[in-house]
Amino acid sequence: VSRVLRLQTPALLVDAAALEANLSAMSAALPGARLRPHVKAHKCTELARRQQQLGHHSFTCATIREMEVMAKAGLGSDLLLANEVLDCSRLIPLADAGARVTVAVDSPETVKAAAAAGIAEVLIDVNVGMPRCGCEPSDAGRLADEARSRGLTVRGVLGYEGHAVGLEDRPRRLQEVEEAMAKLVTAHRNVGGDTVSAGGTGSYDINQVATEIQAGSYALMDTAYAKLGLPFRHALTILATVISANPAGWAVADCGLKALGMDHGNPAIAGGGPVWFCSDEHIVFSAAEGRALPAVGEQVEVLPAHIDPTVAYHDRMHLVDDDHVEILDVWPVDMRGW
Ligand SMILES: Cc1ncc(COP(=O)(O)O)c(C=O)c1O
After folding, report:
1. CB 167 less than 6 A from any atom of ligand 1
2. Ligand 1 atom nearest to CA at 204
3. Could you give the 3-state DSSP secondary structure of residue 70?
4. Ligand 1 centroid vs 213 CA: distance in angstroms?
5. pTM of the entire predicted model
6. What angle, rounded to 10 degrees, do the helices at 108-117 and 140-149 form?
7. Alpha-carbon gap, residue 217 to 115, rounded angstroms
8. Measured from the CB, is residue 303 less than 6 Å from ligand 1?
9. d(CA 219, CA 24)
10. How far is CA 21 from CA 15, 16, 81, 219, 300, in A?
């Protein structure tokens, strides 16, 4: 019996070769500081270390916890919290210990909070078309002035085109990214600074405006991004065990929605087999065309539709060889929590 088969399921498997191929492909396209990898997609300092070894020394985070763990792991040479926080006090010890900390601000309140806590550097977060954080492009200059008047260094602007990165139709994606970035350019003109931080896996080769791209999902991938025809492979699957099989034609495996991010829809079963639905602890599916239904005790691999929330449910990932029978390493998902 292989070591993988002896894993308690559900368990995250990372195909080491696919991960390396994804990391290398992105680093070739966006070398060094052109990529500011977003760690929220993997929440794993071991994986971030691989990204650093490939030449990326600046990282994007979504939570204070991610900032703390990255700094503690010695990966804090340039950390951007691309999110609004009203209590920055936990970030000060990181800066005191030598990490470079930049936070996003989009309001007088967040500027005030950053200044009050003693944060040195900010980016003005600009709304570029998605209902999320970010000030109006026309307010960005005023907010930058206010930040500077409070002693903050404004490094530039941030504007995430999240409404565009997942569009399957490439010409439409191009168009939407272009329109979003036109807003960011306008804001940047009034803000100043060297940095225009934007983009994600779906726009890494399209966004011509950003000085740095904040892609994260490319490393492990998911079925939503796989539809875009990007040069990144599925590196992460969830190993599950078939715990029940019904002669009427369905099987149940132990990977339910408490082990999976479901906001991008149902996952898929590697090798086929229509997924019927997921409940708390179950994935229910039928046999792939021309194949038998897996028997009780057999293992299947599940491909998540959305990588970030999926990884966040698990406390470790198992790096496996090409055949997924040997565990090469175990990496803690050490940036979970807030
Ligand atoms: C601020 C920010 N930047 C970039 C990204 C892109 O990440 P990904 O490459 O996983 O799409 C996200 C994803 O939600 C984000 O919130």
Report:
1. no
2. 9
3. helix
4. 9
5. 0.97
6. 20
7. 32
8. no
9. 9
10. 10, 9, 27, 9, 23
Residues in the chain: 338
> H-type helices in 73-169, by residue range?
92-96, 108-117, 140-149
Spatial separation of the C-alpha atoms in residues 240 and 324, rounded to whole Å? 13
- Whether 160 is in the pocket of ligand 1, judged by its Cβ within 6 Å, is yes
Distance in angstroms (rounded) separating the CA atoms of residues 117 and 105:
13
Residue type (1 letter), 305: A
Ligand 1 closest atom vs CA 166: 11
Q: CA 333 to CA 327: how far, in whole Å?
A: 16
Phi, psi of 132 (to 5 degrees): -155, -165
Task: State whether the beta carbon of 165 lies less than 6 angstroms from ligand 1.
Answer: yes
> Over its length of 338 residues, how does the chain's per-residue pLDDT go in tens digits?
345 668 999 999 999 999 999 999 999 999 999 999 999 999 999 999 999 999 999 999 999 999 999 999 999 999 999 999 999 999 999 999 999 999 999 999 999 999 999 999 999 999 999 999 999 999 999 999 999 999 999 999 999 999 999 999 999 999 999 999 999 999 999 999 999 999 999 999 999 999 999 999 999 999 999 999 999 999 999 999 999 999 999 999 999 999 999 999 999 999 888 999 999 999 999 999 999 999 999 999 999 999 999 999 999 999 999 999 999 999 999 999 99
CA of 151 to the centre of ligand 1 (A): 29
**What is d(CA 224, CA 214) in angstroms, rounded to the nearest whole number?**
18
**Is the distance from CB of 79 to CB of 100 less than 8 angstroms?**
yes
Distance 276 CA to ligand 1 centre (A): 29
Residue 201 CB less than 6 A away from ligand 1: yes
Amino acid at 316: R
Q: Whose CA is nearest to atom 12 of ligand 1?
A: 200
